[in-house]
Each structure stands twice: as structure tokens, then as C-alpha cells.
Write a structure and sequence with these properties.
Elements lengths: L4 E7 L5 H16 L5 E8 L11 E7 L8 H12 L7 E7 L4
Antiparallel strand pairs: 1-3, 1-4, 2-3
């Protein structure tokens, strides 16, 4: 049986919003779309903070199989974020193993 997974990423307000959006939409999203078997990819602009500091945007990707996260496409998307997006915005992310409650 495969284990469902999600990746959750929160980006702080970019130092250059236009450059961030350009790179995110033109480079990073096409890389992320190469992940094998995504179930869903969602993005929230200007999410409202319930506890803690607000952030600029939140992205969540869901998969039916945790193995997708270790794919070559996943490594390329992670490298792009670490090398290119960190120049424009701090971010933090989590990988979640999804299970029923």
C-alpha cells in the first residue's frame, strides 16, 4: 500500500514581488508540474494568519504516493527553490504523510 503525501510551503513577502512572481510562474511551476502523479496543487495568495506572522503565499501539493517526492523532477524543483527563490523570499516547507483521522 502506498502512503499519501503532501508538501506545504509558505513564502514570506518577496524583496521584489514582480521578480518572484515571474520566476515562480515561468520557471518554478513548470518544474513542479513535472512531479510524477500529483493529485492536486493549490496556492493561496495573502493567506490570513490565525496564529503567528502572516506570509505572502502558501502552496500545497498532494500525491497518492510518497515516492513522488524523491523523484528527479522533485529534486530539480527543490533545487530551483533553494537556489533561485531564496534570493527573493525566505520560505519554509514541510512534507506531510497523510492519514485518516
Amino acid at each position: 500500500m502506498t502512503e499519501q503525501a503532501a508538501r506545504f510551503v509558505m513564502y514570506d513577502t518577496p524583496s521584489d514581488v514582480d521578480a518572484f512572481e515571474r520566476h515562480y510562474n515561468d520557471v518554478h511551476v513548470p518544474l513542479a508540474k513535472q512531479y510524477p502523479g500529483p493529485r492536486r496543487c493549490t496556492r493561496s495568495h495573502e493567506p490570513a494568519a490565525v496564529i503567528g506572522e502572516p506570509c505572502y503565499t502558501v502552496v500545497m501539493l498532494d500525491w497518492d504516493d510518497m515516492a513522488a517526492l524523491g523523484s528527479e523532477a522533485g529534486r530539480r524543483a527543490a533545487e530551483d527553490a533553494a537556489v533561485n527563490l531564496t534570493r527573493l523570499a525566505a520560505f519554509r516547507g514541510m512534507t506531510l504523510r497523510l492519514g485518516e483521522v
